[in-house]
Amino acid sequence: MKLLRRTVILMTGLVATLTAHHAAAAPTPVAFPANFRSGVLYNVVDRDDRAEVHEQYTSHEAIEAARAGKPLPMGTDIVSANYRARLNAQGDPVRDPKGNLVAGELDRITVMEKHPGGGASYPEALRNGDWDFALFTPDGRVSTQVPISECLACHKPHQQLDYVKTYFAMAGKRVESHPAPVPAGAVVTTVMRFAVNPARLTVQAGTPVTWINADEPAHQFLVEGASAKTDYLLKGQTGTVRLREPGTYRYHDTFYPAVEALQGVIEVR
Ligand code: HEC
């Protein structure tokens, strides 16, 4: 019975896919993945920076590929169902007994879909391999709230991760059990709940600057104008750069470049 119902759902999904492919000329060739919840929920991100909860789904095949450190297979769909966090009467996010945010209303659904020749219509400077990107309202209509060029620009730096920001979580890698030691004399900043603290650092030229990631998601810090960046930092990992030239440098997180609380300044004397 259960199997039968699943088959019916799959077939309905297939018909919807075919119809949508015919109906949608532009702006996106990606059909609304109505049955995404039948995939694997591999990751939940508490976006403390914007009071949202993001649930991410994909296929078993994609997860196997990520575990093996490989690019994800053709035909992969990744869906992020992005909810507003539930707020209390004071407007603060409600937390469950484990301290996690609680998903409220579904706000939007973002999709990455990989197929041969996908993304071919995007300019090379923006194209993310064979991935197409799409944004939908909760009821499955194409949304133009964010231009697809912005999706592409923000995911583009992560070619090494097959453009998938949550690749490590998909591979089951969340915590670093053998963190690199903090170098002697380093000036340290800590990452917690989508914020660096302190954001502004002053160091002598050549002094190691170290980020300690105490946050759930992976982060990576890039110092602008110095071609210096940390490795990908899982929870518990530390990353260090050394700046030799005096000056004022801004840094940001390559995963979350738009989050201001993850940006800062290093003053090198
Ligand atoms: C400013 C950066 C930024 C922009 C713009 C952006 N994303 Fe992402 N996206 C992220 C980050 C960071 C994650 C992982 C964590 C999370 O959900 O917060 C992510 C995760 C995803 C995922 C889950 C798979 C993955 O890569 O981890 C999908 C699917 C996705 N985004 C699609 C889109 C689509 C579609 C758009 C445009 C409508 C878009 N994104 C725009 C930063 C961005």
Q: What's the helix-strand series?
A: HEEHEEEHHEEEEEEEEE
Count of the domains: 2
- What is the CATH T-level topology of the largest domain? Chalcone isomerase
Q: Describe the strand arrangement of the main beta sheet, using strand numbers.
A: 1-2-3-4-5
Low-confidence stretches: 1-26
Radius of gyration: 20 Å
Average of per-residue pLDDT values:
92
CATH superfamily of the largest domain: Cytochrome P460
Q: Globular, elongated, flat, extended or rod-shaped: what is the shape?
A: globular
Please summarize the sheet with the most strands: 5 strands, antiparallel
Strand content: 25-35%
CATH arch. level architecture of the largest domain: 3-Layer(bba) Sandwich
Determine the N-to-C terminus distance.
Answer: 71 Å
What's the topology here?
Layout (H helix, E strand, L loop, with lengths): L1 H22 L16 E8 L4 E7 L1 H8 L9 E9 L17 E12 L16 E6 L11 H8 L11 H4 L16 E6 L2 E3 L2 E4 L4 E6 L7 E3 L4 E2 L8 E5 L4 E7 L10 E5 L1
Parallel strand pairs: 6-9, 8-14
Antiparallel strand pairs: 1-2, 2-3, 3-4, 4-5, 6-7, 9-12, 10-11, 10-13, 13-14
This protein binds heme C.
Heme C binds next to β1, β2, β3, β4 and β5.
Report on the architecture of this protein.
This protein is α+β, with helices and mostly antiparallel strands and 269 residues long. It has 2 domains: 36-170, Chalcone isomerase (3-Layer(bba) Sandwich); 187-268, Cupredoxins -  blue copper proteins (Immunoglobulin-like), CATH 2.60.40.420. It is 16% helix and 31% strand. It has 4 helices and 14 strands. The longest helix is centred in the first third of the chain and has 22 residues, at 2-23. The N and C termini lie far apart (71 Å). The chain binds heme C. Heme C binds next to strand 1, strand 2, strand 3, strand 4 and strand 5.
